[in-house]
Every structure is written in structure tokens, then in C-alpha cells.
Amino acid sequence: MSPRAPVDPLDTLDSEVVACRACPRLVAWREEVAATKRAAFRDQIYWGRPVPGFGDRRARLLIVGLAPAAHGANRTGRMFTGDRSGDWLYAALFRTGFANQPTSVDAGDGLVLRDAYITASVRCAPPANQPTPSERDNCRPFLERELALLTEVKVIVALGRFGHDSVCSVLGLRPRPPFAHGSEAGLGDGRVLMGCYHPSQQNTFTGKLTEPMTDAVFSRALELFG
């Protein structure tokens, strides 16, 4: 009998994420959305489960978002895939060399991340994009384990204040460094935490976040790799 291949700890973590039912409100919402669907996607089968992280497992860049979008990652099963926030994010990653293509339509569209890994503070789509503190805390161990397993990470880019606060909490940063677009905080171990406005339509449609602003964050990450 040939020896079994070793189990990848990230694969184990992803399986646990997908199977999680710790938050009754989020379970009910994600499944309701998956059943009722949006009219434009009525012929599609929604993922309707927690969404695991995605990307290069030897990445030096870790991107931490808020949570899956109801008709984005909750539909496609891949972080920031199938919604306008993802369109904005992956286009920026393509322009700065972290992705092989600028679009993100579905999990089988050929998108490959280079030296980057994407995850979120909360793994289920929350109503109104607003997780509760207890829901965030239930997901915290997943982010803790990702940060421990992604050993090559040099720069963590937090998308929005929620993601920034989640990373600060997981890392036990006291006092917490202030969040701002383009902010940088050394973590004392060679890693750097950066802030970036979330690529939500609220920010991109109003001009609070522009393409040059987004590109500047990821270009700076490249500089910080050394």
C-alpha cells in the first residue's frame, strides 16, 4: 500500500470553514439568499455556504476583507468573485501584477493570484453587509489559523475599518494602530499592516476610492517586500 499524501493544513481549515454553522442568523440568511436568488442569476446554483480563503499559499501579500457578498461570493463560492467590489479589486491586482487577469466572474474562470491570498473577517454573507460582534468573534479562529499557516506573508492589507480591526484583534495589537487609506503599521516581526478603503460601491461610485488610490496600496506592498 502506498503511503498517504500528507494533509495540507490549509485544506483542512478550508473544509472546516465550509462546514461551519456556528452563527444561526448567518446560516439562515446565506441559505435564504441561495434559495430565492437574484433575478439575474435565477438559473445558477448558489454556493450558499461559508467561503474559504483563496490564492497563492506562499503569498507575501494577504488581503483581508469584511465578508462575502450575498450575490457575489455567496453565489460563486470564491472570495470577491461575481460582484462589483471584486471587479474593482481584481482589476487592481492585475494592474499591479498580483493576478493573471483583471476579471472575476466565477470560480472556474481561470483567475490565478500571484503572491497574494484573499480572505475575510467573516466567512458568511451577512444581512446588509453588517456582521454582529459575536459573528465576527465566531469567525476569528479561522483568521488566526490562516495568519499562522501563511508563513510567507510580509504585508497584510485590510480592506476597510472592519477588516483592519479584525486583524488588530487577532494579532493582539495594543494600542491599535489607526486605520486610514494607505496607513502602515509595523508588527514587530517584519510584517506590515496596511489600510485600504474597501472597494464597495459606496466608496468607488462616490470617488472616495479611486483606481490610482487602490493601485498605490498594492504597489506599496511590493516595495515593502524588500
Folded structure, characterized:
With 226 residues, the protein is of the alpha/beta class. The chain has a single domain (9-224), classed as Uracil-DNA glycosylase-like domain (Uracil-DNA Glycosylase, subunit E, 3-Layer(aba) Sandwich). It is built from eight helices and six strands, in the order H-H-E-E-H-H-E-H-E-H-E-E-H-H. Strands 1-3-2-4-6-5 form a six-stranded mixed sheet. The protein starts with 8 loop residues before the first helix and ends with a helix. The relative contact order is 0.15. The model has no long low-confidence stretch (mean pLDDT 96).
Which descriptors would you attach to this protein?
11% strand; Uracil-DNA Glycosylase, subunit E; alpha/beta; 6-stranded mixed β-sheet; 226 residues
